[in-house]
Write a structure and sequence with these properties.
The complex is a heterodimer of chains A (493) and B (241).
Chain A lengths: L14 E6 L8 E7 L5 E8 L5 H4 L8 H5 L7 H13 L9 H33 L10 H7 L1 H22 L8 E2 L2 E2 L5 H31 L1 H6 L6 E6 L11 E5 L5 E6 L4 H4 E4 L8 E4 L3 H4 L2 E2 L2 H7 L6 H14 L9 H21 L18 E8 L2 E9 L5 E7 L1 H4 L1 H15 L7 H13 L16 E6 L5 E7 L7
Parallel strand pairs in A: 6-11
Antiparallel strand pairs in A: 1-2, 1-15, 2-3, 4-5, 6-7, 7-8, 9-10, 12-13, 13-14, 15-16
Helix pairs in contact in A: 4-6, 4-13, 5-6, 6-7, 7-13, 11-13, 12-13, 15-16
Chain B lengths: L2 H4 L1 E4 L2 E4 L6 H7 L23 E4 L2 E4 L10 E3 L3 H17 L14 H8 L23 E3 L9 H9 L5 E4 L6 E4 L26 E3 L31
Parallel strand pairs in B: 1-5
Antiparallel strand pairs in B: 1-2, 3-4, 3-5, 6-9, 7-8
The chains are: A alpha+beta (493), B alpha+beta (241).
Chain lengths: 493, 241
């Protein structure tokens, strides 16, 4: 499954091209490419160069502080971290099952997050690439350009995201970094006024979400060769699946399939994740490389996120999303879809599912209940897993008798996808880089492949596709042969 | 001599009545006027340490929690000059400890944070000290998070004057001043601290915390969510008796 482009045999004789930082993704990552004198690609790496350290500095803190603290990992998907931590810490307070009101408010918060995150990713970050072309005019390849050329699409993207944020605000107290989920339950339920406010717009959101699926589906049908082959590679895939085999983004059991879609394991209690998954460390990235222990580091890496989830489940419980899932699976044929651009299609199906789930929950009176907290026998270790917008998110804590955290292990979605993103970048480098002069449009092809995964180095810092970018071509002696830079205003020089 | 005239002073031009023995801040609070403060509490003798309540009395600066109200004083309080100095004091308090509001359960219910909002503090300005202050979680019901201590001594005074104990004390001098508890082990569990003590409910920041409460109060229902700290001349903490 791998391209053997991770490490060149003689890097000292090659010239280096760097994309630093990768743009329209969160945080700080870079891509380095080593080429020979014929522009043949010998090595491609996606490096994550940020160091966070949450696992360390959470140690010694009281456990009830954890969900609110660890959500600061991210500005786009804080709800996922808050919920995964709360689920893990439910075990500490002995809440084997939270109350129906607590679970439904947590789910509502989560689907709000899925909706706003998926809308942000598709409309704000990726639609410029997909609607204008990967190497289109860089000055217009952003959400402002979309607003000018496709104003209705831009408006829907903004309003879908806004609605998701409002769902979060009403369940967590704030649009970003709220406090709704706590160990053992939630600290508030929806009021009737809040529910009615959300009900007013939800039907429009369901309709627009379905249109978004149709839009991305249309792109696949219009350009099948591009969409089916761009950066494509075969991989194992994993996700949570509901106890009944449905797509369940909040709770369930772990299921993994191989590249042909055959089950590797199924029905695994995520409390036992450490028996299945290990993490490899490589000296060129701060991000670890998870793999399935049973298959080892070479063959055990896997993909998570929408493309995995939509193909891993047996069905989707909401009717409109299920129709779209079936069409997606039929389009793929006998074998699973592995093309990175398929992520966008799957992501929009999930957005539609999230909108439908929000609608259903708003019609459920449990959402208004007052029984918020559950307790039980005190525990000392807990694992919480949730399907975050970008994929499977694992939180694992140990807490001592004085209520302080002694161990924390987080495996975030983007970490699961580390090897997969590297493979996608290598494929694109092979497909598009050979013998070409470096251009901004060409480099954007590399970034398009990364963006398809919606990496969570992707959350907070991108600003309408105008992240500064620097590319340098060095010879074997490190001499700068040529360079290209893009300012935060989008100016090339 | 007219007795009525003797019983008032002016605070930012407003006439404030007072009775004999009242301090300037006590008289101001009684009249519904807010003077920023942290270590002052109406139930305890003034400590005069935070200096946030500094006002100008007849042109000279003094702590309004220790200065007695006198007839015909001209007191300045809400001025740009004084508020700028208060802001600097606040910024120094923030950098001396580890005040991480984003993950603090007292956020929205914290006098330090609320006062910083009141004085429009936008950044800590100074370099952070990042002191290493492990929490004391030895007590089964209460947690001490020394990271947030501003040395106001309210717990010291409450334990001594209201509870008749001596659970808390300030130790060290100058920049090395720190809160300690009265046990050979240095641990709260080995003191005679009780959850019913006044000292357990007096902390204006997030040092003395009832365990396992955390973020039980949702955003929007916390003490300073509805109105700023200046709306109540002295915000009595929820746990205050």
């Amino acid at each position: 499954m791998t391209t053997n482009l991770e490490t060149a045999a003689h890097p000292e004789a090659l010239r280096r091209v760097a994309i630093d930082p990768v743009s329209r993704v969160e945080g700080h990552g870079k891509v380095t490419i080593l080429l020979d004198e014929h522009n043949k690609v010998h090595q491609v790496r996606l490096h994550i160069v940020e160091f966070r350290g949450f696992e360390k500095f959470i140690q010694g803190r009281p456990y009830w502080e954890v969900p609110v603290m660890v959500q600061r990992l991210c500005g786009i998907c804080p709800v996922s971290h808050q919920l995964a931590a709360s689920k893990a810490l439910d075990a500490i307070v002995g809440a084997k099952h939270v109350t129906p009101t607590a679970e439904k408010n947590r789910r509502l918060m989560h689907y709000g997050q899925i909706l706003q995150s998926h809308a942000l990713h598709f409309f704000h970050l990726c639609s410029p690439d997909l609607l204008f072309g990967f190497d289109s005019d860089v000055a217009k390849r952003n959400i402002v350009g979309i607003a000018e050329q496709h104003p209705e699409t831009a408006k829907r993207g903004i309003l879908l995201r806004k609605f998701g944020q409002e769902v979060i605000r009403h369940t967590a107290g704030k649009r970003i970094h709220g406090t709704g989920a706590v160990p053992g339950g939630v600290n508030k339920s929806l009021t009737i006024a809040e529910r009615d406010l959300l009900l007013k717009d939800i039907y429009q959101m369901v309709s627009w979400s379905r249109d978004a699926v149709h839009l991305v589906k249309q792109l696949h049908h219009q350009h099948p060769e591009l969409y089916n082959s761009f950066g494509a590679f075969r991989a194992n895939f994993m996700s949570l699946v509901g106890f009944d085999g449905s797509l369940d983004l909040y709770h369930g059991r772990l299921r993994a399939r191989d590249e042909n879609g055959n089950l590797l394991f199924d029905g695994v209690d995520y409390q036992d994740y450490s028996q299945l998954i290990a993490e490899e460390v490589k000296n060129w990235s701060y991000m670890k490389f998870p793999y399935l222990k049973s298959l080892g580091t070479e063959k055990g890496w896997y993909r998570v996120g929408p493309l995995s989830r939509v193909q891993n489940c047996d069905f989707i419980s909401t009717p409109l999303a299920e129709i779209e899932r079936r069409e997606f699976v039929a389009y793929s044929g006998v074998m699973p879809m592995h093309a990175p651009l398929g992520y966008h299609w799957a992501r929009m199906i999930e957005m539609l599912h999230a909108a439908e789930m929000i609608k259903d929950l708003l019609h459920d009176d449990d959402i208004l209940g007052s029984d918020l907290m559950a307790t039980g026998e005190r525990g000392f270790e807990g694992v919480g897993v949730i399907e975050a917008p970008r994929g499977t998110l694992i939180h694992h804590y140990r807490v001592d008798e004085q209520d302080l955290v002694t161990m924390c292990n987080l495996i975030v979605s983007t970490t699961h996808n580390n090897q997969a993103m590297n493979e996608a970048v290598r494929r694109v480098a092979q497909q598009y880089l050979h013998g070409h002069e470096i251009t901004e449009g060409l480099l954007n092809h590399i970034e398009v492949a990364i963006r398809a995964f919606d990496p969570c180095l992707s959350c907070a810092t991108h600003a309408l596709g105008k992240m500064p970018l620097q590319i340098e071509v060095l010879d074997a002696a490190g001499i700068n042969l040529s360079s290209l830079s893009r300012t935060s205003e989008g100016v090339l020089s | 001599m007219n007795q009525d005239k003797l019983d008032t002073f002016t605070l930012d031009g407003q006439t404030i009545p007072f009775s004999a023995g009242q301090t300037i801040i006590q008289a101001a609070i009684a009249a519904g006027v807010y003077i920023p403060h942290l270590c002052f509490h109406p139930e305890f003798k003034p400590h005069g340490s935070c200096k946030l309540c500094t006002v100008k009395v007849n042109g000279r600066q003094t702590a309004s929690c220790t200065a007695l109200a006198l007839a015909n004083l001209v007191v300045e309080n809400n001025t740009a000059e004084l508020n700028n100095e208060r802001l600097t004091l606040l910024q120094m308090l923030f950098v001396e400890g580890n005040h991480f509001c984003p993950s603090c359960e007292k956020s929205g219910d914290c006098q330090l944070q609320a006062t910083a909002y009141e004085l429009k503090m936008m950044s800590p300005h100074f370099d952070h000290f990042f002191p290493d202050r492990p929490v004391d979680a030895t007590h089964p019901e209460y947690l001490l998070d020394f990271n947030r201590c501003i040395l106001c001594s309210l717990c010291v005074r409450a334990s001594r004057d209201a509870d008749g104990k001596a659970v808390f004390a300030l130790s060290g001098r100058g920049i090395k001043s720190h809160l300690i508890v009265n046990a050979e082990s240095g641990n709260l569990v080995d003191t005679d601290f009780s959850s019913t003590d006044k000292a357990a409910h007096i902390c204006p920041v997030g040092v003395i915390l009832k365990k396992r409460v955390g973020f039980a109060v949702p955003i929007g229902q916390r003490r300073f969510d509805a109105q700023p700290i200046s709306a109540t001349p002295h915000p009595i903490a929820k746990g205050d008796a």
